[in-house]
């Protein structure tokens, strides 16, 4: 009888996930969900996820390594991705040489691209033997050129450390519900009372989450609640709230606030509802609405405090979303900046005199941060910037910037505005 050998489809599936990201502009999490079969064993799923994340994290460098050995561009997008994936498996994940070449050649067959076998075989053999030296900053730092330029202009003394931090695997931070909860192995944040840095993403974290003892939230994002300092009886607005981490934190810090939560997309509002339910918290109003159009949902009663964590380039959380280094284009920034300003201008009118508004982004680009505040202050003379204490952050012209990697945190910007009475 013939022996049937089931070839692993992991490389094929990885290429299909990467295709959805690089050419269909889907985020990696969605691509993994849409491509991977439901019955896939957990270890295969983990292998594919790791391979895709590492390929995207080192994309510019890995692609350049094999492109050196093709005389003309590889037009076939799947073969391009297969080569980039294979080189990542060899140089980042340390696959043996023979496996790198043989498995890639087999995958050509699975992709029904038998004619590419010769090319893949020869290019990978040469790439593996090559002593590669990156040319230019993009290949050296695994970011697009426009991104590196912007970082260097904004943070001339720190841009290299930010680029290096962006290329690391992200740490796992928890926000503990109280001091007394069971903590997985790890260490506390130097300044934040209930922020906990985990040593590894162990299994009992799922149980701690399910029981509401912890939430997953980067330490940099946990500053929002502490800076806004909600007080009992205050009317508070969280205007771009999904997935709800900061809204839940505000309620945990002070349950006796009247919290209105606004989120534009219904599926993302469902995430907020799940988080509130898991932590047994309740908000005053959950509003599915557009933060830039408060006329559609504002009750007319002004707020004492507003949190505006506006949509942004996510340049401070790229180590969590390495697909951004492939998906984000330079011309995406201006529309985001215009939207941020619209949200800030619109929500500032909802604040009572004497009230405070915390503007926040998970970006390290000044155009989304201090320059937004500068622009806002020019047309809103009744607002002033209040000093905030954010240990480890850098002084921006207005507000404070946490750069990616500082105390193991994501990149984040905060600025507190006060409306004069």
Structure explained in plain terms:
The structure is a single chain. This protein is an alpha/beta fold and 421 residues long. It is built from 17 helices and 13 strands. It has helices at residues 10-22, 28-35, 42-57, 59-67, 77-91, 97-110, 117-129, 136-141, 145-154, 159-166, 204-210, 219-228, 245-253, 266-278, 324-327, 333-348, 370-379, and strands spanning 172-176, 186-188, 195-198, 214-216, 235-238, 258-263, 285-288, 303-309, 351-361, 383-386, 394-395, 400-402, 412-419. The strands form two sheets. Strands 5, 6, 7, 8, 9, 10, 11, 12 and 13 form a nine-stranded mixed beta sheet that branches. Strands 2-3-1-4 form a four-stranded antiparallel beta sheet, covered by helices on one side. Helix 1 crosses helix 3 and helix 5 (77-91) packs parallel to helix 7. It is globular, with a radius of gyration of 24 Å. 42% of the residues are buried. The model has no long low-confidence stretch (mean pLDDT 95).
């Amino acid at each position: 009888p013939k022996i049937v050998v089931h070839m692993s489809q992991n490389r094929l599936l990885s290429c299909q996930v990467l295709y959805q990201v690089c050419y269909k502009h889907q985020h990696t999490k969605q691509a993994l969900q849409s491509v991977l079969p439901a019955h896939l064993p957990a270890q295969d799923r983990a292998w594919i996820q790791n391979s895709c994340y590492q390929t995207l994290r080192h994309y510019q460098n890995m692609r350049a390594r094999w492109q050196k050995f093709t005389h003309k561009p590889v037009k076939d997008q799947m073969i391009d991705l297969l080569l980039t994936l294979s080189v990542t498996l060899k140089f980042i994940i340390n696959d043996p040489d023979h496996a790198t070449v043989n498995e890639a050649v087999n995958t050509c067959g699975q992709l029904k691209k038998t004619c590419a076998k010769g090319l893949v075989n020869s290019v990978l053999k040469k790439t593996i033997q090559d002593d590669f030296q990156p040319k230019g900053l993009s290949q050296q730092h695994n970011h697009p050129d426009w991104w590196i330029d912007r970082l260097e202009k904004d943070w001339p003394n720190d841009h290299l450390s930010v680029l290096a931090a962006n290329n690391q695997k992200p740490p796992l931070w928890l926000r503990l519900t109280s001091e007394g909860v069971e903590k997985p192995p790890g260490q506390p944040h130097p300044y934040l009372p209930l922020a906990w840095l985990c040593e590894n993403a162990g299994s009992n974290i799922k149980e701690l989450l399910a029981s509401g003892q912890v939430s997953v939230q980067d330490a940099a994002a946990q500053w929002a609640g502490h800076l806004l300092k909600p007080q009992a009886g205050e009317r508070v607005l969280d205007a771009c709230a999904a997935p709800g981490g900061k809204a839940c934190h505000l309620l945990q810090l002070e349950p006796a606030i009247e919290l209105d939560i606004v989120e534009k997309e219904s599926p993302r509002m469902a995430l907020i509802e799940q988080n509130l339910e898991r932590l047994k918290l309740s908000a005053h109003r959950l509003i599915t609405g557009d933060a830039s159009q408060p006329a559609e949902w504002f009750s007319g009663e002004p707020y004492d405090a507003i949190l505006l964590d506006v949509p942004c380039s996510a340049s401070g959380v790229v180590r969590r979303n390495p697909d951004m280094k492939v998906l984000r284009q330079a011309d995406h920034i201006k529309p985001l900046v215009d939207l941020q300003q619209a949200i800030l201008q619109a929500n500032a009118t909802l604040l009572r005199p004497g009230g405070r508004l915390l503007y926040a982004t998970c970006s390290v680009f000044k155009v989304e941060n201090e320059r937004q505040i500068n622009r806002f202050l020019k047309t809103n003379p009744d607002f002033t910037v209040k000093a905030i204490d954010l240990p480890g952050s850098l002084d921006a012209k207005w507000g404070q910037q946490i750069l990616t990697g500082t105390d193991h945190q994501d990149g984040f910007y905060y600025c507190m505005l006060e409306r004069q009475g």
